[in-house]
Amino acid sequence: MACPLNCLYIEEEGFSGKIKTLTGDYHVDEIGDGYDLVFLSAIVHSNSDEENIKLLAKCSNALNPGGQVVVLDFIMEEDRTKPVFGALFSLNMLVGTESGDTYTESEVKNRMEQAGLSGMTRIDTPFNASLIIGRKTGN
């Protein structure tokens, strides 16, 4: 099988052998265990709240103690009107997916907490998206 595009980026940056990518359907496929980091890039907006609860639990269960789940997505303010790009994007999710949406910081952090993650932090990026990072403690 040919190396997927993300694999080429990993090789180009000198991280071959240090980063593992998985192909498959995260709704049904297992992701295994023993990971230090699970990165969900532009994923949660495609899912319903219930699907995100299951996905985040699957990711949390795959982590080593101290491992992290990083969610990169369009994170809405609590009134769901800002950022404007995110509000418009939520309309795209309404017409383009069965149950996708954009979510607020408290919604994402709450779902991460339900999945057994703690110490959530938010980092805003310069390209209209934010990172929300949670850590697995204990076993």
Report on this model:
This protein has a single domain (34-136), classed as Rossmann fold, CATH 3.40.50. 32% of the residues lie in helices and 27% in strands. The protein contains four helices and six strands, in the order H-E-H-E-E-H-E-H-E-E. The strands form two sheets. A four-stranded mixed β-sheet has the order 1-2-6-5, covered by helices on one side. A two-stranded parallel sheet has the order 3-4. The termini are far apart. The model has no long low-confidence stretch (mean pLDDT 92).
Topology of helices and strands:
Blueprint: H1 5-12, E1 35-41, H2 49-61, E2 63-73, E3 75-76, H3 84-96, E4 103-104, H4 105-114, E5 117-124, E6 130-136
**CATH level-4 homologous superfamily:** Vaccinia Virus protein VP39
Mind telling me which CATH architecture this is? Answer: 3-Layer(aba) Sandwich
Whole-number count of domains = 1
Radius of gyration: 15 Å
Number of helices: 4
N- to C-terminal distance: 35 Å
Overall structural class, as computed from helix and strand content, comes to alpha/beta
Q: How would you characterize the largest beta sheet?
A: 4 strands, mixed
Overall spatial form: globular
